[in-house]
Recover the amino acids of this structure.
């Protein structure tokens, strides 16, 4: 008989929950049990048990003075077996950092990961006003997130059709719009016309927004580049006017850098 696992997916539930909890912790400097419950949807007793285990193993620390839990430097050991970034990250790192140095907001580079985008590089460490603690490794919906929408809107039609077919079967609530293809295709056409994508305003966190553009190689989207800002800091029109031209310029520079590195 299998251990405590979900027979339908052959996933060990305690492991998936622990990984979900670590990812949630990694996005914040300090998180309370209530915040972790709101973010992950896990029952509070489960969160308490997992935190005790992760604390005992040295991956998490409890700091009552700051009112919560945080990851420790030991989590870096979890990535020591991973080597190398996609060429687009190598090509885009300097341009993303330049955006943050000029405008202070964090920038991110994401690549397609099956039916979602995964953040592979972020300038959060360089940003003094980031809405997030950490996003590298975060999977983002192609339907509701800026970096995902930028990919889906600008990729070739044949690829888009395949992705939409995959997304129509997704059970992720953020992918629900894929089950209304006519409306989604109209939204994607609007994104192509304006040349950039934005996060669905109904998706959390609502206190910030992201502007995203594609990084192209011919007619192929190799990555997406985004800049995230607090909506309380400026109006949407101001952010679009100020940042989108610089995002497009950075994306073009990344494309040229890819060509040089790959030659």
């Amino acid at each position: 008989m299998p251990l405590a696992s979900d027979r339908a997916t052959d996933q060990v539930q305690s492991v998936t929950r622990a990984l979900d909890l670590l990812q949630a912790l990694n996005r914040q400097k300090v998180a309370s049990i209530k915040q972790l419950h709101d973010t992950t949807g896990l029952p509070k007793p489960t969160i308490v048990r997992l935190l005790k285990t992760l604390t005992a193993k040295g991956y998490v620390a409890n700091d009552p003075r700051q009112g919560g839990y945080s990851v420790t430097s030991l989590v870096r050991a979890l990535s020591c077996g991973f080597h190398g970034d996609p060429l687009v990250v190598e090509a885009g790192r300097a341009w993303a950092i330049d955006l943050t140095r000029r405008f202070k907001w964090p920038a991110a580079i994401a690549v397609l990961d099956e039916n979602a985008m995964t953040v592979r590089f972020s300038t959060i460490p360089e940003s003094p006003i980031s809405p997030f603690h950490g996003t590298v490794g975060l999977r983002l919906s192609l339907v509701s997130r800026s970096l995902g929408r930028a990919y889906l809107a600008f990729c070739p039609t044949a690829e888009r059709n395949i992705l939409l077919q995959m997304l129509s079967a997704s059970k992720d609530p953020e992918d629900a719009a894929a089950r209304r293809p006519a409306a989604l295709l109209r939204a994607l056409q609007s994104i192509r016309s304006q040349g950039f994508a934005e996060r669905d305003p109904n998706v959390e966190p609502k206190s910030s927004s992201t502007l995203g553009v594609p990084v192209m190689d011919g007619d192929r989207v190799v990555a997406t580049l985004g800049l995230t800002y607090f909506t309380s800091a400026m109006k949407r029109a101001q952010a679009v006017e100020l940042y989108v031209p610089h995002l497009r310029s950075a994306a073009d520079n990344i494309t040229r850098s890819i060509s040089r590195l790959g030659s």
